[in-house]
Design goal:
The chain is an alpha+beta fold. The chain folds into 2 domains: 86 residues, no CATH class; 119 residues, no CATH class. Helices cover 26% and strands 20% of the residues. The chain contains 7 helices and 14 strands. The strands form 4 sheets. A 5-stranded antiparallel sheet has the order 8-7-6-5-11, with no helix packed on it. It has a 4-stranded parallel sheet with strand order 12-1-13-14, with helices on one face. A 3-stranded antiparallel sheet has the order 3-10-9, with no helix packed on it. The protein is globular and about 60 Å long. It starts with 15 loop residues before the first helix and ends with a helix.
């Protein structure tokens, strides 16, 4: 049996603007660039937004196409806080014959953090309470055991998560809970990552209320679609920098596009003939 999921939940709503946004996303997914869609997206560049709207995006996540841009933006934002920065270097535990590091990208070998730094959880710690891979929050306190100091990982950090709905650790700060180091393979580290910026690739699966996106100097198959579709509505999107319509049209040249469409047509044929 073949089952096709064709309902859009993230951008639900029946007003004209939402319908228009969903159609734009469908065109993006199908690599069908039309100038009306590009013009709609260009209404979300900074020069076309008022001062108040631009300010709303100052603390929103930035999505970039490259790791270098992500690293530079996160580092710039971290130092702008003007708080002491703790360097947490992952430690190795267990014998050399133990299972080596997992390749699931849950733990960074080096992590720079400070009070009030924006972070993302990189492991599913308590799914029912919202402590899932991709959960966003802020570090409020960094705690070391006596005699310990950077670059050792902290004993724990107090982190305030946007969408934590478990048992309150502190009644006065119900969304703030301790996050300890975890072990994956032989690696011991905090399951956190700076998150003022993420790569578009790493943002897959996230739903963001607001995001500033930079699709990069060249179009890759599906990259623009993934970035734009992270938000629930066009109002949650800011595009920076601006890109040309010629750049936008290059999505039609994606190497994997024809393979993907051929596979979708094959599955559609099976679905129609197996019903």
């Amino acid at each position: 049996m073949v089952v096709t999921l064709d309902r859009i939940f993230r951008q639900d709503g029946e007003n004209i603007q939402q319908q228009r946004f969903r159609q734009l996303l469908t065109n993006l997914r199908d690599a069908n660039p039309i100038i009306d869609d590009w013009e709609l997206l260009m209404m979300r560049i900074p020069i076309n937004l008022n001062v108040a709207t631009n300010e709303e995006f100052d603390n929103a996540i930035h999505l970039f196409s490259t790791n270098d841009n992500v690293h530079n933006h996160n580092k710039r934002m971290l130092y702008s806080l003007r708080h002491p920065v703790a360097r947490s270097v992952a430690t190795k535990v267990g014998s050399v014959n133990a299972i080596e590091d997992c390749s699931d990208d849950e733990l960074d070998l080096e992590l720079l953090i400070s009070n009030n730094s924006r972070v993302m959880l990189t492991s599913n710690l308590w799914t029912k309470a919202g402590l899932v891979n991709g959960a966003l929050g802020y570090i409020r306190k960094i705690v070391y055991k006596p005699g310990s100091a950077p670059p050792e990982p902290p004993t724990y950090v107090m982190a305030e998560f946007d969408n934590y709905f478990g048992i309150p650790f502190d009644d006065h700060h119900p969304n703030t809970i301790p996050i300890t180091t975890i072990q994956r393979g032989r690696t011991l580290q905090l399951p956190l990552r700076l998150a003022w910026a993420l790569t578009i690739h790493k943002s897959q699966g996230l739903t963001l209320s607001k995001a500033t996106i930079d699709i990069g100097p060249r179009e890759r198959t599906g990259l623009t679609f993934v970035a734009v579709s992270r938000v629930k509505s066009i109002e949650g999107l800011r595009i920076m920098p601006q890109f040309t319509y010629d750049h936008y049209k290059k999505m039609k040249n994606g190497k994997q596009l024809s393979k993907r469409k051929a596979e979708e047509n094959r599955l559609k044929f099976l679905e129609d003939n197996l019903m």
